[in-house]
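Quick one from the shared queue. A colleague (R.T.) flagged Substrate-binding periplasmic protein as missing a structural entry in our internal table.

Convert sequence to structure tokens.
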Amino acid sequence: MELRPWALLLGLSLLPSLTLAAGKCERLVITGSPDAPPLLWRDPQDPTHLIGATADVLQQVAKDLGLKIDLLYGGKRSQALDEVRSGRMDIFADTPLNLGELENLDYIHPALVQTDYLVWTRKDSALVYTTAADLHGHKGAVSERSRFSAGFETFAGEQLTLQRLPTLTPAFQKLLLGEVEYVLAGRYSAMAMAQTLGMSNDLIARDVPIDQPGLYLAISHNSACNDPWLRGQLTKKMTELPGSGVTEAALQRNLERWKAQLQQPVGTPTK
């Protein structure tokens, strides 16, 4: 059968659009918080890259979607966000929902992970805690690296007496010395730090989370990879993750990985 020239031209003109429908981006550059173990932290063997539970989960997601990703260090958190806003990097991997960023970023729902922030006290503490309001009037501490939900940040600023410290280590030290009555910290990071510092027998985490911020994937409006196909596929994957066990397994694996790294003498190569 003879193919009319116009039909051939029409077929060729459709090819680019069909390719775009399947996703126009084969490689994504992703960044995130460089100091949020066991979720994300800088690879001691290659500090230009980020490793952790979030990195592992995203590598699996990318493999399922037939994409290549690089988890790169973009500077401290504020600098990395600037890299994503500008489009120099495509996705920020672990950001709480911020309404003020909607003009720069598309948030993928649901969240990649929910972070449980717990109230940690000494085991002999008489502090009564069932709700956040119970902490009013008591001195507490928190790491400056903590990322709470916007609602809890407002509540804490108005109702709680919190000393903000550079990391969890001085916060827990002040708790043991009795200089503060409680520390607010993430379940996994605090567990690893307490074990590493030899404080596990002296500290206890209260069961009821004080805050549970969702950490989202956020795609830059300026990213060349930001298209409906990618957003739709990532939304599908985020919806499937909670029931898959993938995230929980990655968290446990990277909790042990980070603890092993913390326990190594300075200058000892990691395996």
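Residues 5-21 form the longest helix (17 residues).
DSSP finds eight helices and 14 strands in the chain.
Added to the table.
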